[in-house]
Predict the 3D structure of the following.
Amino acid sequence: MNNEELTKKETEMIPAPLKGEEFRFDAFKNGNVLYNKKKNRLPAMGWNSWNAFGSGNTEALTKAMADKIVELGLDKLGYEYCVLDDGCYCSEREDGKLKNEPEKFPSGFRALADYIHSKGLKFGMYNDIGTNLCAGAAVGTYLHEAVDAKSYIDWGVDFIKVDNCYYMFDNATFSNPENARFTYAPNIKGIKLVSKKYSDSIILSVEEAGKLTGKGAKLNEEGEVKYATNIGTFDGTNTGTTPVGDMSGELHFNFNIGIPDEYEENDLFVEYATGREPGVGEWLQIAVDNEDGSKLIYDDFLEASEGKESFIMSKAIPITLKKGKNIIRLMNHRRQENTLNSYAELLKGFNEAAPDNDIILSICEWGKTQPQNWGYKVGDSWRILNDITFRVGWDGNPGIGRWFDPGTPSVTSQYNKAVVMDEFAGLDKGWNDPDMLMISMEGLTDIQCKTHMTMWCMMNSPLMLGLDLRRVEKDDWIYRIIANKEMIALNRDALGVQAKRVRTTIDTEDPSKEYITNNNRVDILVKPLADGSAAISFINVSEITKEGRFSISADDIPFDTFKKGSKYSVTNLWTGENSVNTTGVFEAGTLAACDNVTIRVKATD
Amino acid sequence: MLVKEFYEILEKSSVSYRTVLTNGDSPDLSGQIDFAKSDELLERRTAAHIVHYILKNILKETDEPDITLAFELKDIYECKVCLPHIAQVYVKGIMSAEGNAFGVRKPVDDGEAKEIAVRIFDRASRVRPEAVTFQSAVSVLTEDGLEKLIKEYSPLILDIDTIDAAETGESKLKDFIITKKEFDTNKKITKIPMTQIIRNPYCIRSYIESIARFDTNDLAYPVVILSRSTECAQTTGECLVQAGYRNVWMGYFDPVFMQKIWGKRVNESKPE
C-alpha cells in the first residue's frame, strides 16, 4: 500500500467531520429533517424474512410469501412490504457492488423485485452502516453509500432496513471494543484559560468549578485526583435504562465576562487522560455557548495519554469569549452524531440517485445511540432495543418467542420500553420500532399473540410479520389476529398518535413516562383517533390472572382531539361486541394472564 | 487455527463424515455459513455454527428442544446470529463453556478442535453441562448463613430502604459492601428505595455499575437484601426473583453482628 493509499485508509478510519450544524447534538430537538426526508408516513406494514427464516431465506421462499400475502388478502389490509433481511448477498462485493447470493437468489434482486411488484406489493432489503452485515458478509455500506443506494434504486427497492454491526465508530456488535475511544470524552481534571491580550491565566479544576449536566457524566472522587468521567451517551441496547430524558452528560465551566475584551481571545488548555473503554475515550468536543449562540471550537481526538489516570495538558485551543455569560462545554456526542451521519449518507445517496424516490428507511441500530433523539431527521422508524428473539425460525420451524425475558428477547421487554416513548413518535417524526412481530412462534400462546398485536397497533409500531405464511389459512387463529381490521385501523389511523399509558397498577407518579420493567401489573393505554374517538386498551402484562375492575373515565383521557359526550358507543375490537355507555367510565373486569380488552369509544351525543 | 484447518480435522475424524458428503470430496461450507471463510481465524462462534450445520444438515441430528441452560452463558447474546448454534452445541455437550461464558470470539486451538471433532461423531463422548438449580423464591438468611455466604461467594449486599429517593441517605453499610469483583472501596454507597426496585428491578444494574466494576448481566450472582423492614426486604426480593435474578437472599441483622462480620472481613483480606 503506497503512502497515498495509507493516508486514505487512515482517513477512512476516522469519523467524518460533521457536515453542518444540523448534524450536531444541539440540533436534535429542532425538528428539522435532513436531505428532504419525507414526513407524514404511517408505520410500515408487511413481512420480513428474519424471524421466519433467519439467514436461510431464499428467492423461492420470498416469492411464496408474496403469493400468500395476496392469497390471504393481507395486502388489502395494508401489509405491503416484502422485506429480505440478512443472508441474501454474496459474502464479498463484485466490482465494488453488492451482489445476490447466486444459489439462494438465482434470478437476482431486480427480477425478484419485479415479481413482488407484479403482485401489487413493495420490495424491501437489508444492509448495515458498518463494514459487514451482522451475519458476517463483508458488504456493509460504509464508504459505499452512494454506490449501494444506486444499486437499490436500480433494483426497485422500496424499503431498506439498516443495521449497525461492525460499525467503525462505536463499540457496536462485532466492532472493535476499543471504538469506545470515539464515543467518550477523555477523563478531565480541569481547564486553563490564557488570555492572549493580558497573558494571565485562569486555572479551573473540575472539582471546584466544573458543573456536570445531563445524565451519566460523573465526578470520580476516588483517591486524591478528582476528575470528570463517563462523558458520553448511554448505550440503549439493553433493558433496564429509561429512554426518557437526558441520554448523555456534559462538563460545563461558566464564565461571566464583565469588561469587554477582558478575556475575549484566549487559548484554552484541557488537563485530561485518555482511554479506549466505555466511560473514557479519546475524542473531545468543545463548544462555547453565549449570547451569540453555540459554536463548536474543537471536535477531534486528543493525543493519547499513558493511561486513563495519567493526566496531561492539551495543546492550545483558540477560544473566543464574549461579554456576559459564557459556558464552555466539554462533551462527546459523537456516538449519536456519527451514527446519524452514516444513516444520512445513505439517505443522501438515495435522494441523489432518484430524487423522487419513496424509500422507507428503517433504522436498526438497536437503540444503542438513543435514536429516538435523532432518528426522525433521516429515518422513518428506529429500533429501540436489541432483538425481540434470537431463536428465529427456518423452513419448517417457526422459531421461539417469549412473553418475558430479563433481557431484550421478549414481547414485554420491547413493550415496556416502547410504551413510554410516545413523545418521540408522530407523523412529523417517525416511529419507535419494538422489532418484528413474533405471532405464531412457539413459546407464545394465542392470547399472548393477540395482546402482542394489540400492543404494537396501539403503539403505532411498524407491523412486520415474521412467520412462514404458508402455515396460515384464512380464518385460522393466526389469521384472526394478524388480519384484525379494527386493530390494524388503530395503527393506520390518520391522526398518527402513539397511545399513551395513562394508568398502571404499579405505584408511580407518571405512568406515561416511568420506565417499568416489573410485569406484575395492568396497564391502561389510550390512543386518540382522527374521528374524535379513542381506543382504550386494558392490558394484563403479567402471567397470572388479575382480578378486579380496571377503569378510566372520559375526563381522564388526556387528548384534546377526544370528543366527550353524554353517551358513547363502545366497540370491543377483538370480540366485535357493541354497547352503549352513559357513565363516561370505561372499564374492564378480571383479565386473564397476558390478556387484553381493547375498545373504541366514540361520543354519540 | 484457520477455518480450513478445522475442516481438515473434521475430515480426518470420521469416515462417515466424508461419505455422507458428496462422494468423499472435502466439504465446502463457505457458501453455506456466513462466517466460515476458509482463510479466516476460527473463532468459537464460527466453530459452533459449522458444528451445528453438520449436525442438522449432514448427520440429521435433531435439535435439543430445551436450551434454557445456554441462557446462563453471560455472552450468549453477543452474537445474535450465532445464538441458536452456540446454544445447541453447548447444550448437547459438544463445546463447553469457561465458567459462565462461552467465549464467543475466542480462537479455537488445535486441541479443542480435535475434541470437538470427536464429540460431533461420538455422542458418548459428549459432556453435557450440568443443570444448575436456582432459587425460585427469596431465601432467608440466618446470621450463620450470611457469614458462610460472604466467605464463599462475596455476595452483593443491597441496603434497601422504604423511604423515597429524595430522602435516601448514605448507607450505614457503606464500608461493608463486598463483591467478588473489583470494588472501589471509597465509593459512596447509598440506600436504594424499595419503590424504585419494584418499578424497575433492573435499576440495580446501574447502581452496581456506579459502585463496582461488575458484570451487571450476571443474574446468577448472589444478592443479599438487607433492610430495617422484613416486609420491604421480602417485597424487594420477590421483585428481583420475578425479574430473573436467581440467587436472592434476604435478612435483617443486628448491627452489632454486622460490625463483627464486616470488621473481621475487612481486616483479613482485600476484595479480590
Observations:
- Chain A has a mean pLDDT of 93.
